[in-house]
Amino acid sequence: MKTSNYTSKYKFKPLLFFILLLPLLFSCSSSNLKVSEYDFVYKGKSYVIRSTYCSDNPRSCNQLIGKDFIAVDMNQDRIMDKITQGNVSLSEAQEVYDYCLNLLEKAGKLSEIEKDSKQYELNEGNYTFTIKSFPSNGNEHFAEFRVIDRRNSLGQFKESIFIDDNADGNLDEVLKAGILLEEAQKLYSKTIKKGIKQLKLEFHEGVLIIK
């Protein structure tokens, strides 16, 4: 199908979600690094969300801290990206994270800040495919692949999100399940191939890079 620039209400702008609670200020180049924490209980277990934001610091992130794990939303877009400690799955961490963010949103405790970030988006028919690539600790990278299905007649959409742990073109983990991992891999490979053809993506030393 022909690729088009989809501009309706379903196109997502990259937003940064910063928790406006217990602010602490530290020097951060020409601006301030803001740190906030929020304690909450979900299904009888206690958690903490720690949010840091600095307009000129790429390390701004949200951390979800449980008794036995720490998960990180590296670009503060409401999607968990990495488990940095413990053995919990990303999908389990995402469930807890969604619950907390919904509480904060209803209470007016979230600040949405438009943030430029590199991503590749491909629109085909009723589908939008998005690839984001993130650097992690050291030279490690990972990628996020998102599929939006807008075929619902009521104007609603179904979202599926997957993680490519090494940004090597192979999906490793399901974050939000809407389609099977095997099917997602085929769509991911197809999207990467088109991005390379359009000179928007490339593999550098085996790592997927967004130009």
Which characteristics define this entry?
15 strands, alpha+beta, disordered N terminus, globular, single chain, 211 residues, six-stranded antiparallel sheet
Could you describe the 3D structure shown?
The protein has a 6-stranded antiparallel β-sheet with strand order 2-3-4-5-6-7, with helices on one face. The protein has a 5-stranded antiparallel β-sheet with strand order 9-10-11-12-13. It is 16% helix and 44% strand. With 211 residues, it is an alpha+beta fold.
In short:
With 211 residues, the protein is of the alpha+beta class.
Q: State the secondary-structure class.
A: alpha+beta
Tally of extended strands? 15
Average residue-wise pLDDT: 77
| Largest sheet: spatial strand order | 2-3-4-5-6-7
- Shape field: globular
Number of helices: 2
Distance between the termini: 23 Å
**Major sheet description:** 6 strands, antiparallel
> Which stretches are low in confidence, meaning pLDDT under 50 for 5 or more residues running?
1-31
